[in-house]
Write a structure and sequence with these properties.
six-stranded mixed β-sheet; two-stranded antiparallel ribbon; 66% helix; 648 residues; Rossmann fold; alpha/beta; Serine Threonine Protein Phosphatase 5, Tetratricopeptide repeat; elongated; 30 helices; single chain
């Protein structure tokens, strides 16, 4: 049947019909005989008139002929066609590269729990319990868990289980609901094979609404899932899923609020998360995970309110983060949440990316499939300049968060930094196909066009389709328009962005500096002077400048032609800037360009050489295309640096 291209069931059907038909055929052959006049009963034919000898000989010849044909077909199928259809060594390798490995971990998607009661408490508990269950399952080594981001769109979906499983790349789906009535809670859950629709396990829990019961249900569900998937849990994992982190229901509810706000990347949500975690540990001072999350939230606030850029640093925040971390360490020293909090303390508190990566390595040894741990290690690798490792981490996280457009954007951009253009192009296409309305799809396409293909005209067309809604978007759009030779288009974008994004002095300064340079390039001196004057005025309003502001101060000084001030500001910037392979090269090239513009050629070359080891594909392109470096094009030292940059 394989030779004929027919399904296997056809062979079974034919065999069954032969078995059923052999009995009547034998009876028919026994009772009747073929004669020249047709079929007759054997009893009606005299022995002298019988021609069984002749028909028997003919039948023998026919049987022999059929046997020869059958043997021939078998030989051709197995030794000729069969040998051609066997994959070569190359085919086997390519098949293995695309097909799931037998040893691959099973993947489960936990759909949002349906709130089966109208009360706010029931809806809140359903969302919180879903989030908590995802976190607990993700820390088990037996399977991978699809992230919260990717499953949330299926909260009220009408898609069937097979569709959901296929879209998420999950072989198993857990769905259920929660109903809270008074002081009681009813939770139902069922595990389904997403390929066959087979229900592997189901259970309904009726409990008093206490933290002990909620955690007991979570532990029971996790254990049942592992058993249904024939996954063995270690004694440590069994103990982990059965742990009761707090016996205080109000503390647990505050913790859930805090974690919910941690998933929202806004300043008000960040403050709300800190308040909620602080409330949780006040209600239960023995709540280790709440202490750990409080430490992370405080470290994040320290970073985002100034430490990342070196401006407005508040040491009290870092001290508070350490205090919360030490509380978590005293209660649960080897727990994954505690290790993650320690890593963030090194990362955000001191920019000690190496120490933070070492700590996350210990967390990964306990929970290798935890998306938070993998993501953190990815960001740290990027900060350390290990772009290929970071890209691999991005790809790994996409397996557990396939619906995240943001993650696809990060993966594509990091692959460009890692000089892996073929993969970057593939993810750029994935982004365009899956999220055609995502504004960053055009951004990624532009980055790939510029850095992989050096197609500035294509990049220009992509960025012209982008609405400029963030500082990052503005930077990319104005820069790529300049590279494409569209200086007026770049100025137009800057003028528009000034009205929508220019409220913060540092951002407005950035815009005015580039307007001044753009107008000069177009020989519109009056407009250039006006833009430069406003930039100079803005500088007087910025106290305690961070790295970005200092770089812009140097830009303004260079536009004024003040070589001494430009050099002093450049030295001040690098004296305060911690080593950071992700951001350091951009600052170095920016300051070097200002040095060149005011005639500080040796100082520019010194700076370029000092940071050459950290340069990537992007810096190589800047050296080739940026007009500021034109005076260095024939300089042997500059040419040596450009040639040393690894390109794809």
């Amino acid at each position: 049947m394989d030779m004929l291209g027919l399904p296997e069931i056809w062979g079974k059907a034919v065999f069954g019909l032969l078995v059923i038909g052999i009995v009547p055929v034998m009876i028919f052959a026994w009772v009747y005989e073929m004669t020249p006049e047709g079929l007759k009963r054997e009893s009606e034919i005299s022995p002298d008139a019988s021609i069984t000898d002749r028909t028997g000989n003919k039948l023998n010849i026919a049987i022999i002929a059929l046997l020869v044909v059958a043997i021939g077909v078998y030989s051709v199928d197995n030794f000729v066609l069969g040998s051609r259809s066997q994959p070569t060594a190359t085919n086997v390798e390519s098949t293995a590269a695309t097909a799931p490995e037998e040893t691959a971990l099973p993947v489960i998607a936990v759909l949002p729990l349906q709130a089966l009661s109208a009360e706010n408490e029931g809806q809140f508990l359903a969302a919180g319990l879903h989030d908590d269950l995802l976190t607990r399952l993700a820390r088990l080594q037996a399977f991978r868990v699809i992230s919260r981001t990717s499953v949330m769109e299926y909260a009220d979906t009408r898609k069937n289980i097979r569709e959901i499983g296929a879209e998420l790349g999950a072989g198993y789906i857990l769905e259920g609901g929660l109903q809270a009535i008074g002081g009681n809670v009813r939770i139902n859950a069922q595990l389904i094979n997403a390929t066959t629709d087979e229900h592997l396990w189901a259970q309904t829990y009726n409990r008093k609404l206490t933290t002990a019961n909620l955690f007991e249900v979570q532990g029971d569900i996790a254990g049942a899932i592992a058993e249904a998937m024939h996954a063995a849990l270690s004694p440590q994992e069994v103990a982990q899923i059965n742990t009761v982190p707090t016996d205080n229901l109000e503390a647990y509810e505050a913790f859930l609020r805090g974690r919910g706000n941690s998933n929202v990347l806004t300043r008000p949500a960040m403050e709300a998360a800190i308040d909620a975690f602080a409330e949780a540990v006040e209600l239960d001072p023995q709540y280790a995970e709440a202490w750990a999350q409080l430490s992370v939230a405080l470290s994040r606030k320290y970073w985002e309110t100034g430490a990342e850029d070196g401006i407005g640093i508040d040491p009290a925040l870092r001290d508070a983060a350490l205090d919360a971390l030490q509380k978590a360490q005293s209660l649960e020293p080897g727990g994954v949440p505690t290790l993650v909090a320690e890593a963030y303390y090194y990362y955000y508190g001191f920019r000690d990316y190496t120490a933070a990566l070492e700590v996350t390595g210990r967390a990964a040894a306990i929970a290798p499939n935890d998306l938070d741990v993998i993501s953190l290690r990815t960001f740290l690798s990027r900060r350390l300049g290990r772009m290929s490792d970071a890209a691999d981490g991005m790809i790994a996280t996409l397996q557990m968060d396939p619906k995240s457009a943001t993650l696809i954007v990060r993966a594509a951009l990091t692959l460009v930094d890692a000089h892996r253009c073929t993969e970057a192009k593939r993810y750029a296409n994935v982004l365009q196909d899956r999220f055609p309305d995502n504004i960053e799809a055009d951004l990624v396409a532009a980055v790939v066009s510029v850095h992989c293909d050096k197609d500035f005209a294509a990049a220009r067309e992509y960025v012209l389709q982008m609405p400029v809604t963030t500082f990052q978007h503005m930077g990319y759009v104005s820069y790529y328009l300049s590279l494409a030779g569209d200086q007026q288009g770049s100025i137009d974008v800057l003028l528009e962005a000034r009205e929508t994004l220019g409220e913060q002095p540092a951002v407005r300064l950035w815009i005015q500096n580039r307007l001044a340079r753009g107008y000069r390039n177009l020989e519109q001196d009056a407009l250039a002077d006006a833009a430069l004057q406003e930039a100079t005025d803005i500088i007087t309003t910025i106290d305690n400048p961070g790295a970005t502001a200092l770089a812009e101060f140097a830009f303004t000084a260079a536009l004024r032609g003040d070589a001494e001030e430009t050099l002093a500001l450049g030295k001040r910037l690098f004296a305060s800037l911690p080593e950071d392979a992700y951001r350091y090269p951009d600052f170095a090239i920016g300051i070097a360009a200002q040095y060149v513009s005011v005639g500080l050629i040796d100082e520019a070359l010194d700076l370029i050489e000092e940071t050459s080891a950290a340069y990537t594909f992007e810096q190589e392109l800047i050296f080739e295309q940026m007009p500021s470096f034109e005076p260095l094009r024939d300089n042997p030292r500059f040419k040596a640096v450009v040639e040393s940059v690894e390109v794809y």
